[in-house]
């Protein structure tokens, strides 16, 4: 197994730790961020989430730079992304930091696009992510971090930065999903 795939696996292995930190009744106290309080578990989970999210860029960069792109990596990388983002969003709903309906729309789109990719793979095609899809992912990841960090470092503005980013992520998620299906509809037609 090459280094980019090992980096991707490390992202997958960080997910249960991230889940446990936010799910277990850990009482690590709180820290003050401006006039707001932030549970230390949220801070630790946010740092872990940011590190895990960063491995997506690192494994992709390393794989392209050293020509180490593999079929396993093409499978593991998007799966790791979906698992990490889905886990984070579901936990945000449980903690009442994100509306369930937004998360349902986002996760449903991810399942739909993954399904289309599987159909394409069965036909021998690989469907690349679009630029809009990459922006969607960036806003999803950023919204999770800001929601976990109670909008730090912008909490003094008293603007719901995390929620604003989540709504932008929602819009990009829907638009990129529609774009993805429109551009790749031939895959569905050819699979009949």
Automatic annotation (TrEMBL):
GO terms for biological process: phosphatidylglycerol biosynthetic process. It is found in: Cell membrane. Its EC number is 2.7.8.5. The chain crosses the membrane at residues 12-28, 40-62, 83-107, 159-182. GO terms for molecular function: CDP-diacylglycerol-glycerol-3-phosphate 3-phosphatidyltransferase activity. Pathway: Lipid metabolism; Phospholipid metabolism; phosphatidylglycerol biosynthesis; phosphatidylglycerol from CDP-diacylglycerol: step 1/2. Its main location: membrane. This protein catalyzes the committed step to the synthesis of the acidic phospholipids. This is CDP-diacylglycerol--glycerol-3-phosphate 3-phosphatidyltransferase. It comes from Pelagirhabdus alkalitolerans. The lineage of its organism: Bacteria, Bacillati, Bacillota, Bacilli, Bacillales.
């Amino acid at each position: 197994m090459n280094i980019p795939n090992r980096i991707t696996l490390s992202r997958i292995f960080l997910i249960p730790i991230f889940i446990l930190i936010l799910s277990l009744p850990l009482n690590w106290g709180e820290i003050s961020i401006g006039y707001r309080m932030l549970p230390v578990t949220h801070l630790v989970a946010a740092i872990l989430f940011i590190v895990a999210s960063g491995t997506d860029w690192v494994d992709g960069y390393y794989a392209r730079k050293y020509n180490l792109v593999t079929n396993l990596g093409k499978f593991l990388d998007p799966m790791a992304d979906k698992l990490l983002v889905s886990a984070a969003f579901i936990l945000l709903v449980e903690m009442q930091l994100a509306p369930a309906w937004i998360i349902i729309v986002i996760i449903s789109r991810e399942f739909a696009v993954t399904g289309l990719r599987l159909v394409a793979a069965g036909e021998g095609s690989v469907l690349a992510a679009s630029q809009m899809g990459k922006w969607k992912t960036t806003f999803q990841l950023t919204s999770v971090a800001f929601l976990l960090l109670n909008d730090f470092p912008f909490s003094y503005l008293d603007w719901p930065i995390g929620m604003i980013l989540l709504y932008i992520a929602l819009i990009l998620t829907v638009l990129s999903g529609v774009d993805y299906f429109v551009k790749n509809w031939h895959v569905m037609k050819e699979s009949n």
